[in-house]
Amino acid sequence: MVKMQDVFKQILKETIAPLFKKHRFKKKGNNFVRTFSGFSWTINVQSSSLNTSEDVAFTINTGISVESLYGTYYQDEPPKFPLEVDSVMRLRISELKSTSDQHEDIWYKLTPTTNLDDLTEQIKQDIEKIIIPYFQQFQSLQDVIQGLEKREVQGYHENPHVLAVLYHECGDREAAKERLSRVFEECETDLERQETKDLAERLGFEITKSNS
Question: What band does 100 get if pLDDT is binned at 50, 70 and 90?
Fold first, then answer.
């Protein structure tokens, strides 16, 4: 009997990997990355924790890894192969395909009765028509900033320090200081305030709580 895990590995090797390779992604395990100046497009093909030998489900996660966050914010060396799990704007294929906040989580499912031609065609369409066009809007750090700002307006919030670091990285020190000052005012704990002050100092700013 054919194990569905083996079929999944075959799809990853013969369908998914070649498509991302065509778009200049590099592969490591179930992860893919395409690196630009200062940031990377990241992909993770995630297997369900509930998989069995006859029932396998997997999905595709996307993200944007920003190199400057490592030195300034994480205070660590940037990875040579950035991963989706360490990225900002982490979105699953179901979120990219959805036109509203209400959407069903998409998992590609493999069972002994799965029509493999239909499934692989669906995966190809999702990569070529959804994922790649989504990534193509991010060609610079400024594009990443705009993407983060747009999501914030829509009510999706990343770590509040991320935009401050990116503003600073792109030369807008005033926007970075203003952002951190606002974040500092909104902090609810002493630990959050200290983290924000420490980041401001690393960026060359001094912020204090206003009297208002």
Answer: low
Q: Which of 43, 32, 66, 68 is nearest to 143 (CA)?
A: 66
Q: Cα–Cα distance between 67 and 82 in angstroms, integer?
A: 9
Q: How far apart are CA 108 and CA 16, in angstroms?
A: 12
Indicate the burial class of 19 (C-beta count within 10 angstroms; 0-12, 13-18, 19 or more). middle
Q: Is 29 helix (H, G, I), strand (E, B) or coil?
A: coil
Q: How is the chain split among helix, strand and coil, in percent rounded to 5?
A: 50, 15, 35
Nearest 5 degrees, angle CA 83-CA 183-CA 147? 45
Alpha-helical regions (H) of 59-140: 68-69, 93-97, 116-125, 132-135
pLDDT tens digits, residue range 114-155?
Answer: 999 999 999 999 999 999 999 999 999 999 999 999 999 988
Q: What is the pLDDT of residue 211?
A: 40
pTM, full prediction:
0.91
The stretch 35-62 carries a mean pLDDT of 95
Q: Cα separation of 97 and 100, whole Å?
A: 9
Q: Which helix (H) or strand (E) holds 11?
A: helix 4-11
